[in-house]
Design a protein that fits this description.
With 217 residues, the protein is an alpha/beta fold. The chain is built from 9 helices and 7 strands. It has a domain of 150 residues: Rossmann fold (3-Layer(aba) Sandwich), CATH 3.40.50. Strands 2-3-1-4-7 form a 5-stranded parallel β-sheet, with helices on both faces. A two-stranded antiparallel sheet has the order 5-6. Helix 1 packs across helix 9, helix 4 packs parallel to helix 5 and helix 6 crosses helix 7. The model has no long low-confidence stretch (mean pLDDT 97). The structure holds adenosine-5'-diphosphate (2 copies). The site of one adenosine-5'-diphosphate has 20 residues, from helix 1, helix 6, strand 6 and helix 9.
C-alpha cells in the first residue's frame, strides 16, 4: 500500500516551506498543486491559460480541472510508494476525489498535518514572500531571507514576488480558504488522521514538531 501525507493550512502557513524540508527525509515526492499550475502558466499550456484568471483573482481553480490534473500527476511512477501533497485537496469534493483515486491506486492518506497559524500573521508572511521560479523554494524578506538578497540559495536564480501575493489578493485567498478549505479539518479529524502543528513557531521548530508527529513506519 502506498502512503500519502496531505499538508493542510491557510495560505502562508508554511506548507511549501515544510514540504521542501521534509520530503527528502520522508523520501516522498513533493506535489504542490500551486507549483503545477504556475509551471503550466509559464509554459502557456491550455491548463495554465485556464487557471490564470482564477489564480490572479485569488479564487480556486474549478474542481474538475484540478482533480484531473492531480490524478494524472499521482499516476506517474515517482508516486508508486506515495507522495507529500501540498495545496491539494482544498475542497470537500477534492478530498473525496482523492480518496477515490487512492482507492484505485491501492494507496491511503496516512496523516494530515494541519499547520495552524493565526490570520494576522498570514498577511505579513505572504506579502513578504519571495519565490524561486526554478526550484519553487520560498523565502521571506524578514523571516527567512536568502543569503544574497533577491537570489535563490540553491540555484542562484533571481527570486520574484507572486502576483497573487499582493495584500488585496491575499485577503481574498484567506477568505476563500476559510469558506472552502477549512471544513477539511473536520473531514480528516473525523477519520482520526489530523495532526495539529503550531505553525507560529520558527521554521525549524515547525519541522521538528511535524517530523515527530508523523506516524513511524
Ligand atoms: P504556504 O505554502 O502554506 O502558502 P509558504 O511555505 O510559502 O506557505 O510560506 C509563506 C511565507 O512565510 C514564506 O515567505 C516563508 O518564507 C514564510 N514562512 C514559512 N514558515 C515560516 C515560519 N515558521 N515562520 C516565519 N515565516 C515563515
Ligand atoms: P499558497 O502557497 O498561498 O497556499 P498555492 O501556491 O498553493 O498558494 O496556490 C496558488 C493558487 O493556485 C490558489 O490561490 C488557487 O487559485 C490555485 N490552486 C492551487 N491549488 C488548488 C486546488 N487544490 N484547488 C483549486 N485551486 C488551486
Amino acid at each position: 500500500m502506498s502512503r500519502f501525507i496531505v499538508l493542510l493550512g491557510p495560505p502562508g502557513a508554511g506548507k511549501g516551506t515544510q514540504a521542501k524540508l521534509v520530503s527528502g527525509k520522508l523520501n516522498m515526492p513533493h506535489i504542490s498543486s500551486g507549483d503545477i499550475f504556475r509551471e503550466n502558466q509559464k509554459n502557456k499550456t491550455e491548463l495554465g491559460n485556464l487557471a490564470e484568471g482564477y489564480i490572479s483573482r485569488g479564487e480556486l481553480v474549478p474542481d474538475d480541472v484540478t482533480i484531473a490534473m492531480i490524478k494524472e500527476r499521482l499516476s506517474r511512477p515517482d508516486c508508486v510508494q506515495g507522495a507529500l501533497l501540498d495545496g491539494f485537496p482544498r475542497t470537500d469534493a477534492q478530498a473525496e476525489a482523492l480518496d477515490e483515486m487512492l482507492n484505485d491506486l491501492d494507496g491511503q492518506v496516512i496523516a494530515v498535518p494541519y499547520i495552524k497559524v493565526a490570520e494576522e500573521i498570514l498577511i505579513e508572511r505572504l506579502t513578504g514572500r519571495w519565490t524561486c521560479p526554478t526550484c519553487s523554494r520560498v523565502y521571506h524578506e524578514k523571516f527567512n531571507p536568502p543569503q544574497n538578497a533577491g537570489i535563490c540559495d540553491y540555484d542562484t536564480t533571481e527570486l520574484y514576488q507572486r502576483n497573487d501575493d499582493k495584500a488585496e489578493t491575499v485577503t481574498r485567498r484567506i477568505r476563500v480558504y476559510l469558506e472552502q478549505t477549512q471544513p477539511l479539518i473536520d473531514y480528516y479529524q473525523n477519520k482520526g488522521i489530523l495532526l495539529e502543528i503550531d505553525g507560529a513557531q520558527g521554521i525549524d521548530m515547525v519541522s521538528a514538531d511535524l517530523m515527530s508527529a508523523l506516524p513511524q513506519e
